[in-house]
Amino acid sequence: MSRIxxxxxxxxxxxxxxxxxxxxxxxxxxxxLSRQIMPCITLDITDACIxxxxxxxxxxxxxxxxxxxxxxxxxxxxxxxxxxxxxEINGVGYRAExxxxxLVLSLGYSHPINFAIPDGITIEVEKMTKLSVKGFDKELxxxxxAKIRSFRGPEPYKGKGIKYADETxxxxxxxxxxx
Length: 179
Prior knowledge:
By secondary structure, the protein is an alpha+beta fold. It contains two helices and 13 strands, in the order ββββββαββββββαβ. The protein has helices at 59-80, 138-150; strands at residues 9-10, 16-20, 23-27, 32-36, 41-45, 49-54, 83-90, 95-99, 102-106, 113-116, 121-126, 130-135, 161-164.
């Protein structure tokens, strides 16, 4: 039995859960998420919790057991509290600002980068060098943060670029001068 898959998922009182034809829909104060559940996995929904179980012991079913439980848990947590990813911008002249539904980044290129903010995501900028990506869909929050980071990833010599707030960059020593 999967250690993660057998854990029950606690449901808050202000969440509506609907499970029809292998489609799970979770609706809460932050938004509404839906996901197709594999036919080899069954969900037992009660008033207080959701229990995920598998129908057989095939390798593919066993590997999907813990994954499905984690995905359903992320849906429940997302519609109640949401998710947050923090980014930091390092470099002289590197900055960010939000203009309407666009994030404008100045990252040392000859032109500013305009990034359209997806629906369901809010981006807050503090001090022009710290970004907060917030949303109720964990997958979309992570994908948006990774896309922003990909515009100018951190380089190992001076540490310039966009990095996650909790990320550590392994620094390299530069060239040594002639003696």
